Prior knowledge:
The protein has helices spanning 60-64, 72-89, 94-102, and strands spanning 114-128, 136-152, 155-165, 167-170, 178-195, 204-217, 227-242, 247-264, 275-292, 295-311, 329-344. By secondary structure, it is mostly beta strands.
Amino acid sequence: MLLLKGRNSQDRDYDSNRYTVRPRTERPNSSRPTPAELPQKPEEKKYEARPDQSPPPTSLLESSSQPITVDDSQVDENKALSEVVQDTVLGGNSRRIDEYTALLHANDIRRNVLEIYFGPTYIYQNSGSPFWQRSYFSSSAAIQAGIKLWITPFFGLNTNYIKSLATELRADPSGSSRLDVDHQWFDAGLRFRSFFGYSRRSPSINFGIDFSEYQLHIPSDAVLRTNIRTKGVRVSLEATFPHSNTSAWLLGFELQPRQTHEENKAATLIRSGTDNKTDTVGLWIGKQFTFNRKNQIFWKVTHRAEKNLFDGTTNVNDALTGSTIDNVSVTTGTTFLQLGFTWGR
């Protein structure tokens, strides 16, 4: 057995010159990259809608259609106009009207929604004209009835009807015979009220716009008389002046310009001219007595004047002179003496 001689560390075939020691590189505690090291995404541009610009399309179909733009100033103007109309016509919205009504006395007539009035009337009518067929006078009793429907205390609907009872006219110039005739008046339209205060003694103004019609019906066998019809727009204004909680004076006037006036055939066709111009004016005074808002009585005296100016010549001879008349004029005055009762709810 052979024993080899040992070698020390200096006799080894590798030494320290063969290897190089490099310094250790320090790393952060976290191996994840910092936010700054991450790649940044491009920032998305957010869309902010402007009042005068519509939003971007959300689909291909929407992008192909014409965008709709809304003018805010026009919307504001329309809203303001609707509020003005509402305040003027109705007196405001429902909440404001309820607040207004709550301030009124329990017996104030402004609390009424429906008013029905009726009563007897006395009529006197005089028609003056150089053409005898249009010259006459008549008087008789009559009956009057009407309804007022108040949508608000300031705006309502009105209708009125008057019919004569047992009325007669002379059938010829000698007056030896009489004709049984009928007078009728009909009005229907709008009412606007304005009050100057909350108490029952507050004065008020009542403005009306109506369709008005008057008719004179003659028997079908009448030879020297003709049926008459006048219709048109009627504008009226009535002022109420209370002097206590239970009574008030009424004062008003009316105007009916450029009305349509017709002469219709009875037994014969009578024409006062080829064409005419017709206007009517009227005024009245009266008084109203209020027991409570559901029960009232009133009286009223009204005078109405109608003027007819005809062009051309009458188509028949005058019953008195026996000749035709040119440019006939007719002035008809009618007086109403009314007494009535009003029931309200």
